[in-house]
Write a structure and sequence with these properties.
The complex is a heterotrimer. Helix content of chain A is about 75%, strand content about 0%. Chain A contains 14 helices and no strands. Chain A starts with 6 loop residues before the first helix and ends in a 7-residue tail after the last helix. Chain B has one domain (about 65-290): MetI-like (MetI-like fold). Chain C is of the alpha/beta class. In chain C, strands 1, 2, 3, 6, 7, 8, 9 and 10 form an eight-stranded mixed beta sheet that branches. Chain C has a two-stranded antiparallel ribbon with strand order 4-5. Chain C folds into two domains: about 25-130 and about 300-360, D-Maltodextrin-Binding Protein, domain 2; about 140-300 and about 375-435, Periplasmic binding protein-like II (D-Maltodextrin-Binding Protein, domain 2). The chains are: A mainly alpha, B mainly alpha, C alpha/beta.
């Protein structure tokens, strides 16, 4: 970084970047503010909203009406569970594709990705019937299975592109030293792959947390995650901005906080092999 | 380079993923294919009968079908355009040194963590609502007539909402790519008297090409099946102005409970998605080779 | 690795735990997110006190999503719900298919004969009662007395559409954000089509003639849609094409509507001072007519039904009986006041002086309900049953598709003629596909 930057230029960039950043973030900030207002105040003009009294009323109402913690826990189990199982299946596959590429490796990879393009609405009824027969409706296990499968292609691909960045010479060297395949995997590859795996893990937890089609259609009460929680506030009677804001804040806060804290890890591997 | 043994091991390691995905694809797909040739309405059990191509005929001649196809293209294309161009500009901006970089980055990536349902609900009610929404308040403040976004420009509004959600993703990938750019190369170009624009077009853009392809590929996968945003904001309307293929199939199979018709639509959508997929794979495959 | 595996097993074990049955019976109730239903969720302590062995899990959803979820579940026998909140449209169709548990064996004390005959008739198939009404509604005109007075007009008890038009013009003050009339515009067979179909009845229009031929090319439909669009474009609020019941309620409560023609249940919300800024200024009138002998009001009830095949039929029945009983009405009255009691289900409620005292809209509600005739909804004979719907399975899809067209006309994307033409075409297509017409 030997570029000479005048302070003036830096100031201009700072102002610009902050303006853009705040504009992008503003909707989230706004629902956060509205969630602490009364229903009557929440529909007023922005200045009146900011000037009105603050209250926890909406959070109390939401808490009273829904079992937030159960939905929250379901979301955690489903997103973390499906991601871990996905990784377990994907790591060997991606490893093999990256280090022992065959003629058809790329085709297999592309085929995997193409399965993600199937419109879920088209197969909902078959899956629903299948789940009914297997007794998986409204179970967390069922959702873990579905989310593992729909996110598997992304996991494999992300890991593959990351593994490919790992120089092959290191593996050669390890082999020369007589490391077995197992040792190679555990002692040489894994430490190098950790950033990529961490990033894949985070991205998939986010995707699974926010998945709203299957989670809403395959659950009723017991396994319903936060996406179902938010659905019950979508268009209630009368004034509802404050309640909707409170529920929205509660639904997105956990993942937002997790994302912010782990953004370094997330970004590090989020390259999909795009960086050389 | 690889030995026979390691090849066998590799195959073994790939097979669980492949078999699972194969099962996930084949089982529902064959059921869908079977249903698509039946007259099968959930509300009329016991009346299922083979009808040949009837479902396909009705689906393909439905006036809503062409509209939905067009809307799908516009939606995917629009969001891709906004997020890649916006993401590149934003990445360039954030690549500059400035005070509070860390915090601004946190602000910019935030929308990516928001559930599609929540973001659609929030934009629809708190911002785009023509009576109580924030935009309406702002318009009234300046003495203007509030614009009814979801009725007057339904598809545009949805493109906007979806772009807001995906802009952070594009920005992040492009920013990471930009940061890996060789600074010396840039400086050398600057010494040679290359202006900012030519530096961007001749050095940065080629370097970003691969990252942009990745952004396009990943986003297309998700954008083809945009659903929650439409369901929450416009229900596909007014008319069919914001109905995409996914939503059209939803209406067939889950609002009319016409499983046969919906399945036919599903098969059509799968075929179309695969055409897009092949096209994309060609593009990305070439780029990944490089 | 082993940590991962243990975590996985933990996740699976947790999943299994979630499904393990407890000693008490847990029933899952799917419900619509309407005020009366949500109020019940706050009053469940009384139920648990009387039935400590039953636990109720709620799944609260928006109307359209609810309908899709429960229909899918009942038709595939998915068994996710033990009690479902369903409308008068679903009950006869489902009952006929044997998808619902009949409620004929409710105890004497439940007094099924007390249910309003018009409502009960809609829930009965071949003399079997298939669902218990939680609340019933018709539609009527709600208006702002203060604005009406300021406009120098007086609302008759039974207004005509011409009067509504005149009053809407007089009350509109767009600069002051007061819109003369708020009506449903959001597409959906239970949203804008409920209103428009009911309105069309008073214009003498019908969905189908006796040979199931769609009638959108008739003069009566054209007059209905043209008048509706006139009203809404000139005197309605902006963004009307995405307004449903809830959106209009919010508008009316915040003082932005002069008149609102919608469900009678709204009466208790707009007169409730905690939610409504215009609570003491609301008047009521019967839904308008055109002098053809039919009024533009509908008939609807939200009911609790038990899907056939549930493992927990007894617990479900106990709950349904409690939620639709006279005792529940008394409970709401005690906790929230008589004006907030779910209306429109029981004759005894309308004979209760305390209720009549507390609910100024009671008589109007009862009259509106009694004025609706699902067997003869419109002026001409029709082959179907239902005031604001056509009780055939295809109607949900049809109604919504036609609703999309009319909503597009309201948004100004197509003209009334184009919307009617498309409606006629797509209805013909669907009826042909379903085999009603050759």
């Amino acid at each position: 970084m030997a570029r000479n930057v005048t302070n003036r230029r830096k100031a201009v960039v700072t102002v610009l970047a902050w303006l853009v950043g705040l504009a992008i973030f503003f909707p989230i900030l706004w629902i956060f503010i509205l969630s602490f207002k009364s229903e009557g105040d929440a529909i007023k003009t922005p200045f009146e909203v900011l000037g009105s009294a603050w209250t926890f009323e909406s959070y109390a109402t939401v808490q009273e009406r829904s079992n937030y913690f159960r939905h929250f826990w379901n979301s955690v189990v489903i997103s973390v569970g499906s991601t871990l199982i996905g990784l377990l299946i994907a790591i060997p596959a991606a490893w093999a594709m990256a280090f022992v590429p065959g003629k058809r490796t790329k085709d297999v990879l592309m085929w995997m990705l193409s399965t993600k393009m199937l419109p879920p609405v088209g197969v909902l009824v078959p899956i629903y019937l299948l789940f009914r027969n297997l007794g998986l409706l409204d179970t967390r296990l069922g959702l873990v299975i579905v989310l593992t499968l729909i996110n598997l292609p992304i996991i494999v691909w992300m890991l593959y592109t990351y593994f490919k960045e790992i120089p092959g010479e290191i593996l050669e060297a390890a082999r020369m030293d007589g490391a077995s395949l197992k040792n190679e995997l555990i002692h040489v590859l894994t430490p190098m792959a950790v950033p990529g795996i961490a990033s894949t893990l985070l991205l998939n937890i986010i995707l699974a947390w926010n998945e709203a089609f299957w989670t809403l259609n395959l659950t009723a009460a017991k396994a319903a995650p936060l996406t179902a929680f938010i659905a019950s506030y979508s268009s209630p009677e009368g004034l509802f901005y404050a309640k909707l804001s409170a529920a929205s804040t509660m639904a997105i806060a956990p993942i937002l906080i997790m994302g912010w804290f782990s953004q370094k890890q997330l970004v590090r591997g989020l390259t999909f092999g795009a960086v050389k | 380079m690889a030995t026979k043994a390691s090849r066998a091991a590799a195959r073994l390691m790939i097979s669980p993923a492949v078999l699972l995905l194969l099962g996930w694809m084949i089982v529902p797909l064959s059921m869908t294919l079977y249903f698509s040739f039946l007259r099968y309405n959930l509300l009329m059990p016991g009346m299922e009968e083979f009808t040949g191509w009837t479902n396909y005929r009705f689906f393909l001649t439905d006036p809503a079908f062409t509209a939905a196809l067009w809307n799908t293209l516009l939606l995917v294309g629009g969001v891709l355009l906004i997020t890649t161009v916006g993401g590149t500009l934003l990445a360039l901006l954030m690549d500059q040194p400035f005070w509070g970089q860390g915090i601004v980055r946190i602000l910019v990536i935030a929308p990516f963590f928001v559930m599609p349902t929540v973001s659609a609900l929030v934009w629809k009610n708190m911002f785009m609502n023509p009576v109580n929404g924030l935009f309406a308040h702002v318009a009234k403040f300046f003495g203007l007539q509030p614009y009814d976004f979801l009725a007057q420009a339904p598809l545009g509004s949805i493109i906007f909402i979806v772009s807001w959600q995906w802009l952070p993703f594009a920005t992040l990938i492009l920013l990471t790519a930009l940061q890996s750019l060789d600074q010396e190369q840039l400086e050398a170009a600057e010494m040679d008297g290359a202006g900012a624009l030519s530096r961007f077009f001749y050095i940065m853009l080629p370097h970003l090409a691969r990252a942009i392809t990745v952004v396009i590929l990943i986003q297309t996968i998700f954008l083809l099946s945009v659903f929650a945003e439409i369901l929450v904001t416009t229900n596909g309307g007014p008319g069919v102005a914001s109905t995409n293929l996914t939503y059209l199939i939803y209406m067939q199979s889950l609002l009319q409970f016409d499983v046969g018709g919906g399945s036919a639509g599903g098969v059509v959508a799968i075929i179309l998605a695969n055409i897009v997929a092949i096209f994309l794979m060609r593009m990305i495959g070439k780029n990944l080779e490089a | 690795m082993s940590v991962t595996i243990r975590a996985l097993m933990g996740a699976c074990a947790l999943g299994a735990l979630g499904t393990a049955a407890l000693a008490e019976t847990t029933i899952t109730v799917a419900t619509v997110n309407n005020g009366d239903m949500i109020r019940m969720q706050g009053l469940m302590d009384a139920f648990y006190e009387a039935h400590p062995d039953i636990k109720v899990e709620w799944v609260t959803l928006e109307e359209n999503v609810l309908r899709q979820r429960v229909t899918q579940d009942v038709a595939t026998k998915g068994g996710q719900f033990d009690v479902m909140t369903i409308g008068t449209y679903e009950v006869p169709i489902w009952g006929e298919r044997g998808w619902l548990v009949s409620l004929d064996d409710l105890p004497e004390s439940y007094d099924a004969d007390d249910i309003l005959p018009a409502i009960r008739g809609g829930l009965t198939v071949d003399d079997h009662l298939y669902a218990a009404p939680f609340y019933g509604e018709s539609s009527m005109v709600m208006y702002r007395k203060d604005l009406m007075e300021a406009a120098g007009l007086e609302m008759p008890e039974a207004p005509t559409w011409d009067f509504i038009k005149e009053a809407a013009a007089a009350m509109t003050d767009k600069a002051g954000e007061v819109y003369g009339i708020c009506l449903r515009g959001k597409a959906g067979w239970g949203e804008n089509m409920a209103f428009l179909t009911a309105m069309s009845n008073s214009y003498g229009a019908r969905w189908f003639d006796m040979d199931w031929k769609p009638q959108f090319d008739s003069e009566a439909w054209k007059a209905t849609l043209t008048d509706y669009l006139d009203l809404m474009n000139n005197y309605g609020p902006p963004g009307a094409s995405s307004n449903g019941f809830n959106e209009n309620l919010a508008l009316f409560q915040s003082g932005k509507c002069g008149m609102w023609i919608d469900a009678t249940v709204a009466a208790s919300f707009v007169t409730n001072p905690t939610d409504s800024t215009v609570a003491d200024k609301v008047g009521f009138a019967l839904a308008p007519d055109n002098g053809l002998g039919k009024r533009g009001n509908w008939l609807w009830a939200w009911n609790l039904g038990i899907p056939a095949g549930t493992q927990k039929e007894d617990a479900a029945k106990t709950f349904v009986e409690w939620a639709t009983s006279k005792e529940y009405l008394a409970l709401v009255a005690e906790k929230e006041g008589w004006a907030n009691v779910p209306p429109g289900t029981r004759t005894s409620l309308y004979e209760n002086p305390e209720y009549l005292e507390a609910a100024p809209f009671a008589q109007m509600t009862l009259d509106s309900i009694n004025a609706a005739d699902p067997q003869h909804p419109t002026v001409d004979e029709v082959p179907y049953v239902g005031v604001q719907f056509v009780a055939i399975p295809e109607f949900q899809g049809l109604g919504t598709a036609v609703g999309q067209q009319f909503s597009a006309a309201l948004a100004g994307q197509v003209t009334a003629e184009q919307a009617l033409q498309s409606a006629q075409m797509l209805t013909e297509r669907e009826m042909m596909k379903a085999g009603y017409i050759k």
